Amino acid sequence: MAASVDGRGPHGPAPSEFPPPVDSVQEFIKRELDPEDERIDVGVVIVGGGPAGLACANRLLQLLADAPEVMERLGEVPVAVIEKGKSCGAHNLSGAMMRPSGLKALFPDLEPSAWPTYGTVDKDSVYWMLGPGVAMPLKPTPPPFRNHGNYMVSVAELSRWLADKAEEAGAYILTETSAQQLLVTDGVVRGVRSGDKGRGKEGEPLGNFEPGSDVTARATVLAEGTWGHLTGAAIREFALAEHREPQVWALGVKEVWEVPKPLERVIHTLGWPLRYGAKWHEFGGSWIYPMGSERVSIGFVVGLDYTDATVSPHDLLQQFKTSKLVRRILDGGKRVSWGAKAIPEGGYWAMPKLSARGVVLCGDSAGMVNVPVLKGIHYAIHSGILAAETIFEALKAGRPDFSGYERRVEDSLIGQELYQSRNMKQPFGRGFFVGGAVSSAMTISKGRFPNGRWPNHRDADAPMTLAGKAGDYPKPDGKYIFDKLSSVFVSGNATRDDAPNHIRVRRQVPREIAETWRWMCPAGVYEIPDDAPQSGPVDVIVNYTNCVQCGAITAKGGRLTPPEGGDGPLYTVT
Q1: Using an 8 Å Cβ cutoff, are 559 and 553 in contact?
Q2: By three-state DSSP, how is residue 113 classified?
Q3: Pairing mode, if any, of strands 79-82 and 172-174?
Q4: Confidence (pTM)
């Protein structure tokens, strides 16, 4: 068989060769507004009740409190937040060791003791895993993994706290509400269309059917998080990604454990159970963070440009837990939470243009994650603050031009830090050791060496082969090693069985592609019939009610579209 063009080994089919049946611009943009008496008119509409959207709401209301004339012009609902989860934070998941700069900027009068955190940790350890029994410490701790002064948080809890603050300040928060379409007329974003509720599997209205509404606004903030479908529609409609690199992604799977003895350090690992060779294209690692004295956060992250169809981030986490290092920490404990989420890893060169007429992009929607230091929450908060300040100045002046937001972000620590790490992920396409050496040089030189712009390759373009990684995974025992379906149950997923399907994939694809989706999905959404042929085209079964909306399928050849509001997981401590 021929080698692939980028040297990744035997050439198999790529997911991008089997695009899903969806057209973002046609389906997710509405070009005619409903009659005025049928609309919901608000001042500013924010899509997404995570750290970015809620930081924006809080900062905007702080500014409006000192400008009553602007507040009055925005009407009865000056700021509305639309969140598709059952509550703010219900779909939020991260490591998360948070840098404090965002909350300090947002609430300068609040002491850190008032924040919803588990405090700081002064000890860091990084291990190079050579196998389940060998963890070699890297000393001194590499700079990207130093977390002194950072705060351990649950991003789900953080979002609920930010939502409470925003509501106290006057925000109107609509939970269990999906934003289905972007309202665009005359080249200007006018707000969003909320999704229908109460439709059946075939889209038919049920007895409890409620149609969506046009929510019109003077400014629209897209803070949807990973793989926001409205963000994707806006990027295409307004050509926001021209001359940018394609976004690339990783998938993180996380568990929270109650443990009998406290963990007194922050731990990261590299290496096993991932493979080192360039042909595998496996990039990622783990974290183990203390959450106070009684809980531990453990997770594994894998870049989604790997080439072995049987790579499974969920099962890699289970395999990682068989190591002596992890067993010493979790022994005698109990798993209390689980979840999964895709992470944008394209960095500086993959960030789209951040505004168009009537709209701005914030946080993960805009790819604001610093891969080498594993940080993004403070960027989300800072971007929400900067968006609010830009929007406020524009509304005050009566000229809704938000183009200054781009310069604000570029001049902030977001732009400065992401520029320093602008070529950090790309070298790992040449293998673990070469990538590690090049990225170390970039860290030491703060991005000055090696210079230039290194290209990204779309995750879905990676040719997939059946290379046998699945043979390494441990069998679930229901106590320490868990299967996917029991994990979905722990997530609090409550998607109703008769809801419409919100996942788009080609239903007949080569075996390699079907296996890619089956193994990749942490929630067991994709299945292959037992009687399917071992080679050639196979049918794909989509168990969409299992979906925890991690977004990985969109990176690897399918498309996650908005479910009915309130469906999906109910994360509490992730």
Answers
A1: yes
A2: helix
A3: parallel
A4: 0.95
